[in-house]
């Protein structure tokens, strides 16, 4: 498969080299060495054994292609890895290698270990997104624009409150993801530390400390909550990023033109139409998010696993979990420059507010006219005036003031205010302030 063409463009570019086959082998070796160190510290192995294993294996050349080939025979990469590791050790040290562990201990713990820097990177990117969104939100707190429901013009909002929703959504997902625990896995063949009795739990805790992972209550061979929690948290981040990208893409449409993705050499160009400036960053974000959503489905469907070892469910988790992390990181690598350089066009927002000839303000106008005309007549007059304003390209307030049923009924100043979209943005400003306080307050 041409991964560099079809998969990698949507993933975190720096993360790709940190999550390749060699990285998986390195992570599995870290787990094995942490286990040996824990066993030595517990007095089960002679002093110095852990250091000797590290000297022989750290930096050793494992046959990656051989591990890949032999994975077909054993069903996971840990089995050929353990074989190669044992072969690289002198005879007197081989008995201390992989003692008490099982393949799932190795694979699960290695994946959790690989996730540590990935979540750190995602956290940093989300914080940059939040900072950029906060700046946009405050800059455009009073910038009126069309609020749209079912893809149609509805009532005015401010661009600042739209960005506030983006920012809060991203931050909610960031906090959820950062609260997810990455636990070590160590349970042995059937998850009860066979041959190690009560010492097994202490070894598990010691491994967690050495690897920078959390210690679970029990081994979680077929209790896949950690994977479910991580996968769905990554999916939530993808959804929050996709929301921003979708809104931006819709607002960049030629006929709307209220925002534009930041310009960059060669970014967004068409192979056949020189005039186009495509929202490519939004496309990359949405593509990555769609793939994460699919992976989340796989992870959720693998949550219930049989007895003491999954039969295909466990195996089905590996690629979706790792790819989800890489895809989320890739989406955020596009979202950061998108938010930091987003071009906002208030003049286009004002133009689009007037597209209906003022009809977007028919509701507040009807409310203003109701005491004088009655509810039914007020609605009819406001709608009729809006259609006239649209058809004759005249200001809505002017048409209303000249309407025979309105003239002299409502003060001109009140009528003008009722026709001003900027004066009918509801709680937009209060929501922005509330969002700002929440976003900038220390996380609990």
Q: How many strand elements?
A: 4
Count of separate structural domains: 2
What fraction of residues sit in β-strands?
Answer: under 5%
Mean pLDDT: 94
Helical fraction equals 55-70%
CATH superfamily of the largest domain: Fumarase/aspartase (Central domain)
- Strand order within the widest beta sheet: 1-2
**Structural class based on helices, strands and sheet pairing:** mainly alpha
Q: What name does the CATH topology of the largest domain carry? A: Fumarase C, Chain A, domain 2
In DSSP terms (H or I, runs of 4 or more residues), the helix count works out at 18
Q: Which residues sit in consecutive blocks of at least 5 with pLDDT less than 50? A: none
Distance between the termini: 45 Å
CATH architecture level-2 label of the largest domain:
Up-down Bundle
Domain Adenylosuccinate lyase C-terminal: 357-436
Pfam family, one: Lyase_1
Protein name: Adenylosuccinate lyase family protein
InterPro entries: AdenyloSucc_lyase_C, Fumarate_lyase_fam, Fumarate_lyase_N, L-Aspartase-like
Structure report:
With 444 residues, the protein is mainly alpha-helical. It has two domains: 3-350, Fumarase/aspartase (Central domain) (Fumarase C, Chain A, domain 2); 354-423, Fumarase/aspartase (C-terminal domain) (Ribonucleotide Reductase Protein R1, domain 1), CATH 1.10.40.30. The chain contains 18 helices and four strands. The strands form two sheets. The protein has a two-stranded antiparallel ribbon with strand order 1-2. It has a two-stranded antiparallel ribbon with strand order 3-4.
């Amino acid at each position: 498969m041409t991964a560099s063409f079809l998969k990698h463009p949507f993933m975190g570019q720096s993360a790709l080299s940190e999550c390749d086959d060699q990285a998986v082998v390195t992570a599995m070796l870290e787990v094995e060495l942490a286990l040996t160190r824990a066993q030595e510290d517990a007095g089960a192995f002679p002093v110095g054994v852990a250091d000797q294993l590290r000297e022989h294996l750290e930096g050793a050349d494992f046959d990656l292609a051989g591990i890949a080939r032999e994975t077909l025979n054993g069903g996971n990469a840990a089995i050929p890895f353990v074989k190669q590791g044992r072969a690289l050790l002198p005879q007197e040290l081989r008995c201390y290698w992989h003692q008490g562990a099982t393949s799932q201990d190795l694979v699960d713990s290695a994946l959790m270990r690989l996730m540590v820097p990935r979540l750190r990177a995602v956290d940093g990117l989300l914080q940059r997104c939040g900072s950029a969104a906060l700046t946009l939100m405050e800059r455009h707190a009073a910038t009126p624009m069309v609020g749209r429901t079912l893809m149609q013009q509805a009532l005015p909002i401010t661009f600042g409150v739209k960005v506030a929703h983006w920012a809060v959504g991203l931050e909610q997902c960031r906090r959820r993801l950062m609260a997810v625990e990455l636990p070590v896995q160590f349970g042995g063949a059937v998850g009860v530390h066979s041959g190690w009795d009560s010492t097994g739990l202490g070894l598990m805790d010691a491994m967690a400390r050495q690897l920078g992972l959390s210690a679970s209550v029990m081994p979680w061979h077929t209790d896949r909550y950690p994977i479910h929690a991580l996968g769905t948290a990554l999916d939530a981040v993808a959804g929050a990023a996709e929301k921003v990208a979708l809104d931006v893409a819709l607002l960049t449409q030629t006929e709307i033109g209220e925002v534009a993705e930041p310009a960059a050499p060669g970014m967004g160009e068409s192979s056949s139409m020189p005039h186009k400036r495509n929202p490519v960053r939004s496309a990359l974000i949405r593509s990555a998010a769609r793939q994460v959503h699919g992976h989340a489905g796989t992870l959720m469907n693998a949550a219930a696993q049989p007895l003491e070892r999954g039969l295909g469910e466990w195996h089905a988790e590996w690629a979706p979990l790792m790819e989800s992390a890489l895809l989320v990181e890739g989406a955020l690598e596009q979202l950061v420059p998108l938010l930091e350089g987003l071009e906002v066009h208030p003049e286009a927002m004002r133009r689009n507010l007037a597209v209906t000839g003022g009809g977007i303000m028919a509701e507040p106008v009807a409310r203003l006219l109701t005491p004088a005309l009655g509810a039914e007549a007020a609605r009819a007059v406001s709608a009729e005036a809006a259609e006239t304003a649209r058809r004759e390209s005249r200001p809505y307030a002017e048409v209303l003031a000249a309407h025979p049923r309105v003239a002299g009924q409502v003060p001109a100043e009140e009528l003008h205010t009722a026709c001003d979209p900027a004066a009918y943005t509801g709680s937009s400003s209060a929501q922005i302030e509330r969002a700002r306080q929440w976003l900038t307050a220390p996380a609990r």
